[in-house]
Fold this protein.
Amino acid sequence: MRIVLPNSAHLQNLAGFIRKYDPNAGANLNIRLDKRWIHVHPFALAMTACAGALARQRGQETRGHVPKINSVRYLLRMKLFEYVALNPRIEITEHEESGRFIPITQIRTNEELRDAITNLIPLLHAPANVADPIKYVFSEMVRNVLEHAQSPVGAFVCAQYYRQEDRLSIGIADAGIGILQSIRRSHAAEHDQAAIALALRPGITGATKRIGGTETNAGAGLFFTKSIAALSRNFFALYSGNALYKLLRTREGQAPRVNADPADDRHNFTGNLPRWQGTVVGINVSVGGGKAFADLLSDIRKAYRIDVKHQSKQYYKKIRFIA
Amino acid sequence: MKVSIRGTTGEFAEDKDAAARMRTESIEPALDRGESVTLDFSGVRLTTQSFIHALISGPLRKHGESALEHLEFKSCSKLVRGIVETVVQYSLETIDEP
């Protein structure tokens, strides 16, 4: 397997990073790092760490050369080299990571997820409008991995907070069965792209054929996560098998909206990519602009549409909320 | 019957397993007996759709719209309220036909 960390890999230019990934490049893990600088989305970091952990678990060697560039300090503080067995050849003074990022963290159990939410996210020292979307996305996406993915190395998560832009970038990766196999447990999907399109629709889960899910699984985690990005005018990316779905930003002057069918979103699908055995999710969320996270989640209800008969009835108006 | 959510989950109610336990051990038995249940969200600042789904979707589908007559949602923040509304709406939309 070979992974190349280029000087730029963000959700808007992700396909270039993925195309350089080669799952068939030898029996070991080869990591190549750009020799000038490396500025990549948590999507790429989580995926690289996941590959590193998988190689270690399989007893494979990790090979590569770490250049002497400033970006390596950032990769070191993000704890990439705890999972990718390369010598960074520099040392840094460890101190609390306040305010900028949440380092790469491996999560294999519900307890580790709780610990990450309780202990890691507060390191950002961020107000609720920043911390809440991270908590929400970490919880929903990691629970998806723990429940459905059968990933031998669990989930890898990390996040970057761009304070000046009021933007969060979050990445989650696993090396599990992938969306196609997961969805096929209950639904017909011919290929990765079809499975991703189904998984992004609310109410569809591999756990049951029933639209709307089971008592414990609604099949809506990916839909909500995509919607959070859409309503904050941002990117969302989902890569599994050989397909990449990318939600594009809403054009200036247009009201952001979400759709139950991902095909109705402003998006692109890229197929025939190198096969990632598992799933990687990347999301950007704008946390400024006056739109509270609570408003954003309320807006999702308006878009949550399942193809069923009773749709016209407004059941939610009959709920008894008391002070 | 009153079920305190924060007492089990803390201020971020996201543990689906905990939600399922509250559903099977408290909410469903009370509703089956025809009793009312107050779900107290005092002190819960944030929750997830998955948590609320695991908490109430089953009883809503079992008892249908009438479950809403026996369920109260206390001290919900705007965020919790929005997610409860979403889950109630789609759970009853996808109810099995008799």
User: Anything to note?
Assistant: The mean pLDDT of chain B is 93.
